[in-house]
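Bench notes, afternoon.
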Amino acid sequence: MKKTNFTTLVLLLLGSMLFAQSSKIQGEIKKWHTISLQFDGPQCSETDFSPNPFLDYRVEVTFTKGHKSYKIPGFFAADGNAAETSATSGNKWQVNFVPDEAGSWNYRVSFRSGKDIAISDEPENGKIIAPDGISGSFQVADADPKASGFLSKGRIIPTLGERYLKFAGTGEYFLKNGADSPENFLAYIDFDQTYRYGNKAIIREGEANPKESCHKYESHIKDWKSGDPTWQSGKGKGIIGALNYLASQGVNSQYMLTMNIQGDGKDVWPYADHNERYRFDCSKLAQWNIVFNHMDRLGMMMHFVLQETENECLLDGGHTAVQRKVYLRELVARFGHHLGITWNMGEENGPADWTPVAQTDQMRKDMANYLKTINPYPNFVVVHTHSDDLHQDLVLNPLLGFQSLDGPSMQIHSAEHANNRIAHFIAESSKTKKQWVVMFDELGPAHKGVMPDQFDAQHDTVRHYALWGSLMAGAAGAEWYFGYRYPHNDLMCEDFRSRELWWKQTRIATDFFLNNLPLAEMKPANELVDAKDAFCLAKAGETYVVYLPQTGNPTIELPLGKYSVKWFNPRTGGNLQDGKLTTLTGGRKVSVGLPPVKDGKDWVIVIRK
């Protein structure tokens, strides 16, 4: 026994010496920037069965600074440059870490092997192998206040008791204004092993045709800029350009399925093969990460939707067992460090008349618990709903107060119901110990959503009921779904300029709420205004915002006091303007007067004490 222990010690020491020569730290060593620690480990292939590099090795690095400690899961990185080489094998292993404080950080490596050890809950299980035990330190510079996107503001996080997301670095609120389509955003032709799988003779409406190409985003190649990332001699310009365009329009989030096997698109998966469930495509995921790095710099959230209603029971029959755990762990290890992430447990999750096989309440809770457990950062976890009240209540009501879920990602069939349904779940969750952050992420009906500008240039109904209706209810933001019946739809969108007039309106609304209101202190108060289909958001006795769907002369009930009155045009934006009345005296119901222009259109009133 002594001889065996001595031999093991010698091997570990030799491994440590080799590690010191082969390890490297990559990235800008600054607060909120990604620091990658890459080192030599066992030689493996992504096609290996025994041992499987994604299941039978567990690499973790613990980063500490004073009282702070983060245990970060690592991953098999093939040759360490797979995005460029398309390598499937190698001996490189990697951990991505984002420090949230400047100063001296220490790290220590844990590396173990054993059957399914990657998903084991027992930290001491498995066999210790080199480079286990290696440690070091590095000095982190402070955040650069002039850095682009999220790099100057920090991680987007939920905060206990609040219904809005915040930047951890600055404390500013983040209000989502996102693109909910195409759901198969990552079905991009320049990614390795990306194609549309299918052998069905009949393709139903709303499904992708396997004979058609995956996304090229050719119209956005012109939006790629010199110095932007590419891979493999210029690949990636279309998808990078598309993100550049969206960011230029004030869009700050993109919805994307990470696995749609058996779903509508059948063209996105992280695995080494369409029929694989335990091994992953190192080069494809490294190429995805190039895009995600760019999103951090643009200030765009990654809305990772982990499954569809059609495949929510594909992994482990819906349970959180080996297949689901290794899937979630790999995504968290590779991408969990990014600064703006929504982890969505599934599109249209739960039972419905057309989905006889669905995850149960306990399955959802197990999945959310696992996501929270394996992610070392304060991540944002939600679940997407069906569009009708009955099935929403069936899924969401049992989750009220559940600590591992941060809120619902809501689909609402009729725009007219958005304000009421969002306000309902904000209010219901406030009665528990877990205030929800409620997002409005899909507008119905499914064939329509937000139509291209050529079919609905004004977007009056969607602006009134969906955009302003959701934000006036207290939603923490919205993403806009494109439907399946119009050009540039939910599966085949190639040009985001198809809805440029709509992006202008969403930016006007988002900027208004962030720049003019004490958001976190306001609550829906529609009952104070007597105009039909009007919305009111109020900080009682101090600030009132009223959205009027059309010009009129409504009244509002105000507490005693003197108030100023300003008007805002939600169609064109601009500065707050004076109307026919500039002051009001409260203590009763009072008329708000008329807007600067009596045009019969919608206006917003800002009333301040």
